[in-house]
User: Fold this.
Amino acid sequence: MTILEVLISGGLFVLALALCGELAVMGIRSRSQSMNKNGEFRANLTLLHQLQVDLKETRQIYLPDLSDLAAHQPGTDSAALVLRLPAVDGSPRVVGWNLANQELRRIIYRPDFHPGVPASHLPQPNERTLTTQGIGNFTLQLEPPGQNYGSKLLRIRMDCLKPALQKIDVSQRLEL
Assistant:
Protein backbone atom coordinates (compact mmCIF):
# COMPACT_ATOMS: atom_id res chain seq x y z
CA MET A 1 0.00 0.00 0.00
CA THR A 2 1.20 3.45 -0.75
CA ILE A 3 1.15 6.32 1.66
CA LEU A 4 -1.68 7.95 -0.32
CA GLU A 5 -3.89 4.88 0.07
CA VAL A 6 -3.19 4.77 3.82
CA LEU A 7 -4.11 8.48 4.18
CA ILE A 8 -7.33 8.08 2.21
CA SER A 9 -8.43 4.99 4.13
CA GLY A 10 -7.49 6.65 7.45
CA GLY A 11 -9.51 9.74 6.50
CA LEU A 12 -12.52 7.63 5.58
CA PHE A 13 -12.19 5.75 8.87
CA VAL A 14 -12.10 9.03 10.89
CA LEU A 15 -15.10 10.32 8.92
CA ALA A 16 -17.05 7.13 9.69
CA LEU A 17 -16.13 7.41 13.40
CA ALA A 18 -17.28 11.05 13.49
CA LEU A 19 -20.58 10.09 11.87
CA CYS A 20 -21.14 7.26 14.35
CA GLY A 21 -20.28 9.57 17.25
CA GLU A 22 -22.77 12.19 16.02
CA LEU A 23 -25.48 9.52 15.71
CA ALA A 24 -24.73 8.32 19.25
CA VAL A 25 -24.99 11.87 20.65
CA MET A 26 -28.29 12.41 18.83
CA GLY A 27 -29.62 9.15 20.26
CA ILE A 28 -28.63 10.13 23.80
CA ARG A 29 -30.32 13.56 23.44
CA SER A 30 -33.46 11.96 22.05
CA ARG A 31 -33.60 9.49 24.93
CA SER A 32 -33.10 12.27 27.47
CA GLN A 33 -35.91 14.37 25.95
CA SER A 34 -38.19 11.35 25.89
CA MET A 35 -37.44 10.56 29.54
CA ASN A 36 -38.19 14.19 30.55
CA LYS A 37 -41.45 14.14 28.61
CA ASN A 38 -42.52 10.82 30.16
CA GLY A 39 -41.52 11.99 33.65
CA GLU A 40 -43.61 15.16 33.38
CA PHE A 41 -46.58 13.24 32.02
CA ARG A 42 -46.33 10.63 34.81
CA ALA A 43 -46.22 13.41 37.41
CA ASN A 44 -49.33 14.99 35.89
CA LEU A 45 -51.17 11.65 35.83
CA THR A 46 -50.15 10.91 39.42
CA LEU A 47 -51.57 14.22 40.60
CA LEU A 48 -54.72 13.68 38.54
CA HIS A 49 -55.11 10.24 40.15
CA GLN A 50 -54.82 11.87 43.58
CA LEU A 51 -57.56 14.33 42.56
CA GLN A 52 -59.78 11.40 41.53
CA VAL A 53 -59.14 9.70 44.89
CA ASP A 54 -60.01 12.93 46.71
CA LEU A 55 -63.21 13.29 44.69
CA LYS A 56 -64.25 9.69 45.48
CA GLU A 57 -63.88 10.38 49.21
CA THR A 58 -65.53 13.83 49.08
CA ARG A 59 -68.33 14.51 51.53
CA GLN A 60 -68.87 18.12 50.46
CA ILE A 61 -67.53 20.59 47.88
CA TYR A 62 -66.99 23.94 49.59
CA LEU A 63 -65.80 25.93 46.57
CA PRO A 64 -66.52 26.72 43.74
CA ASP A 65 -70.28 26.45 43.26
CA LEU A 66 -70.55 23.86 40.47
CA SER A 67 -74.35 23.82 40.38
CA ASP A 68 -74.54 26.24 37.42
CA LEU A 69 -73.02 23.59 35.09
CA ALA A 70 -70.52 26.16 33.75
CA ALA A 71 -66.86 25.33 33.30
CA HIS A 72 -64.65 26.54 36.17
CA GLN A 73 -60.89 26.98 36.27
CA PRO A 74 -59.92 26.72 39.95
CA GLY A 75 -57.40 29.38 40.85
CA THR A 76 -57.85 31.21 37.53
CA ASP A 77 -61.44 32.36 36.97
CA SER A 78 -62.98 30.90 40.12
CA ALA A 79 -62.06 29.95 43.66
CA ALA A 80 -59.87 26.93 44.28
CA LEU A 81 -61.62 23.57 44.31
CA VAL A 82 -61.99 22.91 48.04
CA LEU A 83 -63.24 19.52 49.23
CA ARG A 84 -64.16 18.17 52.66
CA LEU A 85 -62.92 14.61 53.12
CA PRO A 86 -62.91 12.31 56.12
CA ALA A 87 -59.50 11.93 57.76
CA VAL A 88 -58.23 8.60 59.07
CA ASP A 89 -59.51 9.41 62.57
CA GLY A 90 -62.94 10.48 61.24
CA SER A 91 -62.38 14.21 61.66
CA PRO A 92 -62.87 16.50 58.65
CA ARG A 93 -59.97 17.01 56.29
CA VAL A 94 -60.05 19.97 53.90
CA VAL A 95 -58.15 19.71 50.60
CA GLY A 96 -57.79 22.45 48.00
CA TRP A 97 -56.84 22.22 44.33
CA ASN A 98 -55.89 25.20 42.20
CA LEU A 99 -53.84 26.30 39.22
CA ALA A 100 -51.36 29.16 39.61
CA ASN A 101 -48.54 30.07 37.23
CA GLN A 102 -48.92 26.84 35.22
CA GLU A 103 -48.56 24.81 38.42
CA LEU A 104 -51.34 22.56 39.69
CA ARG A 105 -51.26 22.41 43.49
CA ARG A 106 -52.94 20.28 46.13
CA ILE A 107 -53.00 21.98 49.52
CA ILE A 108 -54.27 20.57 52.82
CA TYR A 109 -56.07 23.29 54.79
CA ARG A 110 -56.64 23.51 58.51
CA PRO A 111 -59.83 21.74 59.74
CA ASP A 112 -61.44 25.06 60.77
CA PHE A 113 -61.68 26.10 57.09
CA HIS A 114 -64.84 28.05 56.29
CA PRO A 115 -65.60 29.09 52.70
CA GLY A 116 -67.03 32.47 53.73
CA VAL A 117 -64.13 33.45 56.01
CA PRO A 118 -60.92 34.14 54.03
CA ALA A 119 -58.92 34.32 57.28
CA SER A 120 -59.59 30.59 57.80
CA HIS A 121 -58.04 29.62 54.45
CA LEU A 122 -54.70 28.64 55.99
CA PRO A 123 -52.62 25.60 55.02
CA GLN A 124 -52.20 22.88 57.61
CA PRO A 125 -48.69 23.07 59.05
CA ASN A 126 -46.39 20.09 58.40
CA GLU A 127 -48.54 18.79 55.53
CA ARG A 128 -46.94 18.13 52.17
CA THR A 129 -48.17 20.21 49.23
CA LEU A 130 -48.32 18.23 46.00
CA THR A 131 -47.49 20.15 42.82
CA THR A 132 -46.84 19.55 39.17
CA GLN A 133 -45.43 21.98 36.61
CA GLY A 134 -46.46 22.69 33.04
CA ILE A 135 -50.27 22.74 33.25
CA GLY A 136 -51.78 25.24 30.84
CA ASN A 137 -55.44 24.62 31.60
CA PHE A 138 -57.28 22.94 34.48
CA THR A 139 -61.06 22.95 34.05
CA LEU A 140 -63.88 21.41 36.10
CA GLN A 141 -67.46 21.16 34.91
CA LEU A 142 -70.43 19.36 36.38
CA GLU A 143 -72.20 17.45 33.61
CA PRO A 144 -76.01 17.67 33.29
CA PRO A 145 -77.57 14.91 35.41
CA GLY A 146 -80.15 13.96 32.75
CA GLN A 147 -77.41 12.55 30.54
CA ASN A 148 -75.99 10.38 33.33
CA TYR A 149 -79.13 8.71 34.70
CA GLY A 150 -79.28 11.16 37.60
CA SER A 151 -75.74 10.65 38.89
CA LYS A 152 -73.38 13.58 39.30
CA LEU A 153 -70.35 13.46 37.02
CA LEU A 154 -67.55 15.97 37.24
CA ARG A 155 -65.55 16.42 34.04
CA ILE A 156 -61.88 17.24 34.59
CA ARG A 157 -59.75 18.59 31.76
CA MET A 158 -56.03 19.24 31.95
CA ASP A 159 -53.77 20.55 29.20
CA CYS A 160 -50.14 19.69 29.79
CA LEU A 161 -47.61 22.07 28.23
CA LYS A 162 -44.08 21.23 27.08
CA PRO A 163 -42.51 18.75 27.31
CA ALA A 164 -45.54 16.44 27.76
CA LEU A 165 -47.95 18.22 25.34
CA GLN A 166 -50.89 16.01 26.32
CA LYS A 167 -54.58 16.68 26.91
CA ILE A 168 -56.21 14.74 29.71
CA ASP A 169 -60.02 14.52 29.86
CA VAL A 170 -61.70 12.31 32.47
CA SER A 171 -65.06 12.19 34.22
CA GLN A 172 -65.40 11.34 37.89
CA ARG A 173 -68.63 10.30 39.62
CA LEU A 174 -69.40 12.30 42.76
CA GLU A 175 -70.97 10.66 45.80
CA LEU A 176 -72.24 13.74 47.68
DSSP finds one helix and eight strands in the chain.
